[in-house]
Amino acid sequence: MSGTEAEERSGDFIRDIIRADLDAGRAGSVVTRFPPEPNGYLHIGHAKSICLNFGVAEEFGGRCHLRFDDTNPTREEHEFIASIQDDVRWLGFDWGDHLYFASDNFETLYGWAEHLISEAKAYVDDLSQDEIRKHRGTLTEPGRNSPYRERAVEKNLDLFRRMRAGEFADGARVLRAKIDMASGNINLRDPVIYRILHAEHPRTGNAWCIYPTYDFAHGQSDAIEGVTHSLCTLEFEDHRPLYDWLIDNLPVPARPRQYEFARLNLFYTVLSKRILTGLVAGGQVGGWDDPRMPTISGLRRRGVPAAAIRDFVKRIGISKSDNTVEVALLDHCIREGLNKTAERRLGVLRPLKVVIENYDEGAEEELDAINNPEDAAAGTRTVPFSREIYIERDDFMEDPPKKFFRLAPGREVRLRYAYFITCTDVIKDDAGVVTELRCTYDPATRGGNAPDGRKVRGTLHWVSAAHGVEAEVRLFDHLFTRPDPGAEGDIVDDINPESLTVLKRCRLEPALADARPGETLQFERQGYFCLDPDSSPDKLVFNRTVALRDSWAKIKAKGAGKG
Ligand code: ATP
Ligand code: MG
Q1: Which of 1, 91, 215, 304 is the most exposed place for a label (fewest CB within 10 A)?
Q2: From the CA of 45, which ligand is nearest?
Q3: What values do phi and psi take at 405, rounded to 5?
């Protein structure tokens, strides 16, 4: 095998394990699962897990299940179940017929709990939650046995059945696995496997008032579904001995194995459903799909293509050590994908009026514009031009510094796809703010090139005043001001007050009135944008997905640095 072949074949340690298991015949085929708890919307961290689980299943000719880990009825909702399915599909993955719910296994799990009791491997404990915690010990001290630990099997069975029958209040009793209160692994110190909770479940309604814990439901659901490789994040590493203990001590139909990989962390971003739920509930964001949210639905609304998220996940790779990824990498993946696919349009975000004095009043013409220089098949369109246009306010400076190549008094620049224009006059209001520019154009430069070969250094985008459509454009910045939000104090205090900028009365070329939802376009020289669902027939709203890199900003920053 050549070096590159070896690299291609290896991929990451999870894929190495799976390949070795298949080669050695330890697994006939690969079955994985993505197991969200339906207590919130999916975020980009989940995308890592989704791409891994569905990705390896696809690569090794196996299958991946979507399983809702719905064992905590108090926080789970139908809205989340629906959104999670939408998001996984949108990301490009398909679970086929393999949609499961841990709650479908409640009866089986209950039977297995009785099985453990019968084998004297589980007992009903009457200690309160608080007392259980006090008995648990610490990392350096062993735990202490509960006074109820040696209850007779018959008594335990009776109490457990009465727990199920609803005879006891929430928290009055729990069922614990009887493992080892002195274990070095706290997860093995008689973990709780059932608790009483008189709460309606989104799927099983009021059928149950006792619910299995995550640890008791997860591995057993894996076994029931025939999952071979149960891939989860590193915080579950310490749970693996319990995972294995339960599989070893229950009459499960298969023997899944758990493997852990590092979760995704992103600077300036929070990937905790608990905190994201708080932001939604507290109104700090407009909802789960606010384009500033790291949720799949937020990214989608911002105009990020699913392919860019998959590309991002591929580039960060799978490893066994925690690290934090730069947001710039995600932005890079988004730009790179969109550069190839997005059609170009002209849009002026902060309009400054330009009157072309030698262009006939009332005249207009259609100029050819290229839809995508990266994709000839995208073809061309026409853009209307007339005597009054808008250009970007930033593209004019009355007294420009050396490296500013755009419009200035007396200077000639190119209007993209149109003509060379020269600024002849600057009109200001009483406060000295520039309100309008007067220019002349050279009719011989139609299309944007001079027949005499003379060059200009700046090319500007523009929109015809009479033809352009008005729109609101929303620009986004990091939701948090700190790379590590919440690291010192209340996370709400770290919210970036400038994370959303709303620009009213932007001017866009008329073709943008027909932009389709879900389609991301490049506004030349500005970035990538997509139509927001807040749009209506009489109000266009666009979101900026990501800016283009601004070379001027860099030059400016360098200049400032030099003092
Ligand atoms: P919580 O915020 O309540 O701890 P969670 O983010 O772990 O929840 P789950 O619904 O339990 O959410 O996650 C489903 C799967 O996604 C799990 O296998 C989990 O390990 C994985 N996952 C969650 N967050 C990340 C992340 N940041 N990076 C990679 N995988 C993740
Ligand atoms: Mg979780």
Answers
A1: 1
A2: 1
A3: -105, 10
In the chain, what is the straight-line distance between the N-terminal and C-terminal CA atoms, in Å? 56
Q: How far apart are CA 320 and CA 349, in angstroms?
A: 45
- Dig out the tokens for 483 from the structure: 């790379």
Q: Report how far apart, in Å, the C-alpha atoms of 275 and of each of 40, 76, 458 are.
A: 10, 16, 46
**Residue 21 contacts residue 275 (beta carbons within 8 Å):** no
Two domains, one topology: 265-344+471-563 and 347-460: yes
Backbone φ, ψ for residue 532 (5° rounding): -90, 145
37 labelled catalytic: yes
pLDDT (0 to 100) of residue 284: 97
CA dist., res. 17 & res. 14, Å (int): 5
Task: List phi, psi (to 5°) of 15.
Answer: -65, -35
Element (H, E) at 115: helix 106-118
Residue nearest to atom 18 of ligand 1 (CA): 232
Can you give the pLDDT at residue 2? 41
User: What confidence tens digit (pLDDT) does each residue in 415-446 have?
Assistant: 999 999 999 999 999 999 999 999 999 999 99
**Secondary element (H or E) of residue 111:** helix 106-118
Residue 37 CA, closest ligand 1 atom number? 10
CA torsion 311-316-317-322 (nearest 10°) is -150
- For residues 440 and 425, give the distance between their C-alpha atoms in angstroms, rounded to a whole number: 10
Q: What are phi and psi of 13, to 5 degrees?
A: -65, -30
Residue type, 479: L
Mutate to test the pocket of ligand 1, among 222, 233, 271, 321 (most ligand atoms within 8 A of CB): 233
Confidence of residue 1 (pLDDT cuts 50, 70, 90): very low
Residue type, 177: A
Query: Which CATH superfamily includes the segment(s) 11-263?
Result: HUPs (3.40.50.620)
Ligand nearest to the CA of 260: 1
Note the CATH architecture for domain 347-460.
Beta Barrel (2.40)
Pocket (CB within 6 angstroms of ligand 1): 35-37, 45-46, 48-49, 232-233, 263-264, 271-274
Beta bridge partners of 414: 420, 459
* 75 is known as an active-site residue: no
Domain 265-344+471-563 has CATH 2.40.240.10: yes
Q: Closest ligand 1 atom to the C-alpha of 36?
A: 10
CA-proximal residue: ligand 1, atom 16 (nearest): 46
User: pLDDT per residue over 312-366, tens digit each?
Assistant: 999 999 999 998 999 999 999 999 999 999 999 999 999 999 999 999 999 999 9
